[in-house]
Amino acid sequence: MIKLTDIDKYIDSRFQRTFILKGIDLEVQPGEFLTIMGPSGAGKSSLMNIIGMLDEPSAGEYYFFDEPVHKMREKQKSEMHKNFIGFIFQAYHLIDELTVYENIETPLLYKGVSSNMRKSLVAEMLDRFNMVAKKDLFPEQLSGGQQQLVGIARAIVGEPKLLLADEPTGNLHSDQGRQIMDIFQKLNEEGITIIQVTHSEENARRGKRIVRIVDGAMAADEKIR
Ligand SMILES: Nc1ncnc2c1ncn2[C@@H]1O[C@H](COP(=O)(O)OP(=O)(O)OP(=O)(O)O)[C@@H](O)[C@H]1O
Ligand SMILES: [Mg+2]
To answer: What is the residue extent of each domain of the chain?
Structure first.
């Protein structure tokens, strides 16, 4: 599904090149539930942004379902992102001016999904996450855990093949974190491939494989199930 070969990310200033990622080789098969771990500043978010096609590598090759992402134009990449990838952020990144309902609906509008289909898909998400009563509230009227549920609903409403989550429970209490890990495990059982970043060993153990990154390079790759 994902094949990264010798990926570098660097920033050039006048006299030196600073590496954020160096020589990353990573293959992910459909159905995996992979956790990326590593110290703060190791390059985890940078790698997630490249995998999510929100940023591009400085060098190396990236194949997504055998398509060469490293050769794609911006427009093609945003099409791929829109159609195949759901992204969940630590800081929720909901749109403050939109209701819960509208936030969840947004990716479907971008995808050009018909009005009837949108209604039924959003209703399904609200139901699934027990948020029907909250659908007309704005993000600031929700708790952190509830906002992240909306973030997850928004990420999966378009039925992505790949769910990327960069510290999705970083701002939550541990029981809220557990609830989100339960949801991830369920989604993975339903067939969605998941890559998450977490600092929590407990959350990492919910996945099937742990990749560790130190100073922008792969330091370990461990299958746990
Ligand atoms: N646009 C940028 N310009 C310069 N340096 C950057 C840029 N983006 C990231 N970096 C640097 O790259 C390194 C890796 O950052 P990244 O956000 O990927 O780390 P991380 O592993 O996600 O850390 P954390 O656990 O704190 O989220 C950091 O040293 C950061 O300062
Ligand atoms: Mg990060």
So the answer is: 2-223
Mutational test site, ligand 1, from 18, 44, 164, 214, max ligand atoms within 8 Å of CB: 44
Taking domain 2-223, whether its CATH number is 3.40.50.300 is answered by yes
| Digit-coded pLDDT (tens) for 99-149 | 999 999 999 999 999 999 999 999 999 999 999 999 999 999 999 889 999
Cβ pair 44, 195 in contact under 8 A: no
Q: Mapping DSSP to helix (H, G, I), strand (E, B) and coil, where does residue 24 land?
A: strand
Residue nearest atom 1 of ligand 1, based on CA coordinates: 11
The closest alpha carbon to 121, from 162, 145, 153, belongs to: 153
Report residues whose beta carbon is within 6 angstroms of any ligand 1 atom.
11, 20, 38, 40-46
Quickly count: other Cβ atoms within 10 Å of residue 92's Cβ.
20
Distance between CA atoms of 68 and 64, rounded to whole angstroms?
Answer: 7
Convert the pLDDT of each residue in 79-93 to its tens digit.
999 999 999 988 889
Atom of ligand 1 nearest to the CA of 199: 25
User: Best mutation site among 9, 46, 90, 214 for ligand 1, i.e. most ligand atoms within 8 A of its Cβ?
Assistant: 46
